[in-house]
Batch of 4 targets.
Target 1
Amino acid sequence: MGRRNIEANPLTDLCGDYLVRIEDALKRELDSYSWSEFHAPLRYACDGGKRIRPLILVLSAEAIKGKKANGDAYLAASAIELLHTESIIHDDIIDEEHTRRGKPSFHVKYGYNSSILTADFVLGVILFIGSKLKNPRVLNELSNAATRMSEGEMMEIRLNKAPAITEDDYIKVLDYKTASLFETSAKIGAILGEGTEEQIHAMTTFGHMLGIAYQIHDDLIDWNDEDKLFNMLVKQNDRSKDFIDRMEKLYQSYAAKAKDELLKVAPANNEVIRHLELMTDLASVQI
């Protein structure tokens, strides 16, 4: 799990079996490219991730369908994790990050040229997974997520050069760059779980709200150590405690809205819904 996960994480305890199956499915997809020069770099890039996005997908499918997720859900979950991995490779180059998950970041270990090519290769793997799913709607959602994440990265690059930014600017970047993949994970899960349009919409909104809450919470933890948009807002507000408190309340508000959406999907006594509810308690489970 991740660098800030507490030793006894309730989410890990409850979802350990899911995480093992996600890991197995991802390894299976990667090992189908064991002949390729990209195989070892891909294994390195994927190693150590928290798998929170694929977990959302699998749980969303089960919450709606009411039974264990099938192979398609785990296949789609692999595509989601690979899309996240591809974005990390690019992000670390753009942000000049030298470490990731407690080890050298991808471009530090393999170089810039190999990083660009590996990220391209990953997109090819994702496209192939999408073709195996034989569900145009799922492939469309993966495409939309990739597009929005790129738009979010471009927005962030532009805003980093701006003399000042607003909170709305910051939230819009989170919406595109981070929340889009949370949203897509939940939506694809709901689609594969054969949910009604109302259930799919509610699960999509859950993912969207959770993604924004997650990133604000993450930025609150790291703002003193990272030079990103959130730091610009903190400095513009004279590093005031009032601003930090307001942002703390904002992430809690988004997390609460995410939790409310789940009750539109299935009853609160649904065990899988309770797992998803636990993800909204970011201070406790530290996803």
Target 2
Amino acid sequence: MKSDIDLLILDYIDGSITKEQEVELFEWVEASEQNVEYFSQSVAYLELTYTSGKSEKYNAEKGWKRLSDKLNKRSILFQMWQSYGKIAAVFLFAFLMGYGVFRYELIPAGEQLSQDYITTEVPLGSKSVVTLPDGSRVWINAGSAMSYPVKFDENHRTVKLEGEAFFDVVTNRKRPFFVETEGIKVKATGTQFNVRAYADEAFVETILVKGEIAVNRTNVTDDELVMHPNQKLTLYKDQAKKEHAAHHDVEKEEAEAPKAPKNIPLKVKKVELTSNVRTDIYTSWKDREWIIFKEKFGMLAQKLEKRYDVKIKIKDRQVCDFAYSGTLKDENLKDVLDVLSITSPIKYEFDSKNVTIWYNPKFYDSN
């Protein structure tokens, strides 16, 4: 039975699990505390073997060979694991090799985290999926970092986020789930929501897809706001410039938006709660099809920078106000820029990791 469960866990991580298999897996997980612990630890260890920031996955066959070379082939340990074949190689090799690498190399320099915490950093141009100790899943966007304990506290589950992430939280009303990020603290008991809190952007944003969450501003008492599905909460920063003031400044006329100092309350000039929003517009960044809807190029440029790991310089300010709608599916950056230049009055130059955009007045002559 355990080997069957291991196979289901592998399919779950790989994304190839069917709906029926997923139901079977989680019925087994929920059957006992031991199963929950086995599942969460197995998934955590297995995910460590995925190449950070790349699409390549862990090669179980090579891992098994490397592991078997280290073990005495006559030992009981080897005979026991050999019967499980490649599945055993993945889990044991992850435990012996991946776990230490993950815990030490991915903790950024200068970060004062204890050995009981794990930090996942996702570089620009990448995305990552993490399964937390309670089985909750988190999709982490490019240029983001999330830290969480190896084992959650008995009374609460707390993670710290810098950047953007989508949370699918396992329901547990006795142990609320908290996300602490720049300026806000989100409380959930079991729900799906998206948090966007990049230091170089002019806002902090929370989107609720399913369930219910409560949002508090950091260090502000009596400020709890309860959100319901299809609502968007936006906190506009007082100290940051508007959309076009990130890395793609208009000919450097404006300085880059400053990063908010850590441990200092976020200065907010405006709080906005919007209902009946299309949540997929704000969460599809994690999916194969990325939905863009009435997005001004000033904000779109910031997202393109993170998604494709490039620097975008806008030479003409008016380009920032052009709005775009559409769906991108596995397109590379050049394909995206080609479509934008065909459908709107812009031209671009693309050199390695640098993109220059400017207004094209001749666009209307040919249309």
Target 3
Amino acid sequence: MAVPKRKSSKARKNKRRSNVWKLQAPAFSKCPQCGELKTPHRVCGNCGFYKGKEIIKVEA
């Protein structure tokens, strides 16, 4: 089994691990009903529609 010759520093270890923990901005899609931006697979907060059906009654 291979054994490292020297101890890898905390900075080197953290640099290696940092790529895994990058945060991504949430994706947005347009609501086909009202055109408002919303997150995919969620009910539109503006009109209350999901997949062409009214799920939540939103008062104007």
Target 4
Amino acid sequence: MNEVPIDPDVVELLSELAPPEQVAAADLTPEQHRQAGREAMAYFTEGVTPLSVHGVTDEVVPGRDGKIPVRVYNAETPAALIVFMHGGAWMTGSLDMSDVAMRRLCHDTRSVVVSVDYRMIPENPFPAPIDDTYDAIVWAVERFPNLPVLVAGDSAGGTLATCAALRSRDEGGPRIDGQVLIYPGIDDDYDAPSMVELSDDVPNSREDLRFFIDQYAGTEAAAGSPYALPARAESLAGLPPAVIAIAGHDRLRSSEEAYAERLQAAGVPVTVQLDLELVHAWFDFAPRVPAADRAFARLTTSIHELIHRGIASA
């Protein structure tokens, strides 16, 4: 599947974080998953000085089902608005855990970044996460008008970002000028080549991914919905231009590549960033791994190009 080995710094990082004994995702409680996520993020960002930006405020979006916390990172002269959904298998993650990455995204793209603290499963099943995502986008566009609008996210957040773009297209919602999808979950094809061919050295076993995806998109309410998994959409025509960052050693890789091909076939401009030496979650450990840091910089360059495309189309 991938002849380029995993970056040695990634191997070392993962080995340091590996628990003494592997436990299946299905055998942990949501709070245990969340605690593990907090501990991992603390390790990834240990000793890192967060970048300074023009301003940071915590605000509240009046969502359809209640208040949605968001954190707004302001650039002095913003080039765009980026609404960002964090990763974490729809079950973990927070505004605080995303803070270092969001500050860098704001600083490096010179954009307003709205980081969304959407409701998570299993306490808040589908469609709660996508409803919060969509409502936050509507709010952000009204709050920061006259800027190119990008939706973005990593992993589960990338899924929410592109599903929100689908929903906005279908419901005549806000204009979205671009989507930044960082190793997003696309479908529930557990027999895709990358699902079965990658070695056990790759984070997230096939069964662990099955557990998380089924928890989110396998419920009765989510059945068949393209707003749960975007591969279910009959057509991708009319979606905004996309940047898709794909990790070489990621079980989601095959589905992401297939989604990029479908977007292109539908006439959607797509930039694919394939980082062969990296694994899922590299966006989080960029502060500790030079190869991931370089991938972040490449992503920033692609976002700049997406912003300029949005400015031109507006």
